[in-house]
Amino acid sequence: MTNKQINAAIAEACGWTCVSAVHSSGTAPNADYIGNEFIPNYCNSLEAMHQAEKCLSEKHMREYIFELHNITDGDMNAQGDFWDRAKLYYPVVCATARQRAEAFLRALKLWEEEE
Asked: For every one of its 115 residues, what pLDDT tens digit does the chain have, with 9 covering 90 and above?
C-alpha cells in the first residue's frame, strides 16, 4: 500500500468520513461541519499514530502488538535477565510511524498487499 492509501485507511478506521486518498483529505470525526481537511500523516508522524492507537479496542490492541512484533522482528520468546528480555520490547518501542501504521491496518485486517 502507498502512504496515501495507508493514511486514508487509518483515517477511515478512526472515524473520518468522506476520505480521499488522492487528496489526503476528509471530514474529521465529530467535526462541526461537513468539509475537507487534511487527514493526519500516519505514516510519518508518531503523534498521529499515537492518536490512532487510541481508537483500537482491547482485542485489536492485542493483534496490533502481535503484528508490530512481527514487523519489527521483536523476539517474542526472549528469556533470561533484564537485558535479554529487553530484546522483546526494544524493537517495538522504537518502531517507526510507518511500521506502526502497517501493524495497525494488519490488526484490523485492512492491509492490502501490493500486486
From this structure: 999 999 999 999 999 999 999 989 998 888 777 667 899 999 999 999 999 999 999 999 999 998 998 898 755 555 666 666 666 777 788 899 999 999 999 999 999 987 6
Dihedral (Cα; 79, 49, 114, 27), 10-degree rounding: 160
Burial per residue of 18-29, b for 16 or more beta-carbon CB atoms within 10 angstroms, e otherwise: ebebeebbbbbe
Query: What's the whole-model pTM score?
Result: 0.85
* CA–CA dist 22, 101 (Å, integer): 18
Per-residue cell: 112: 492490502
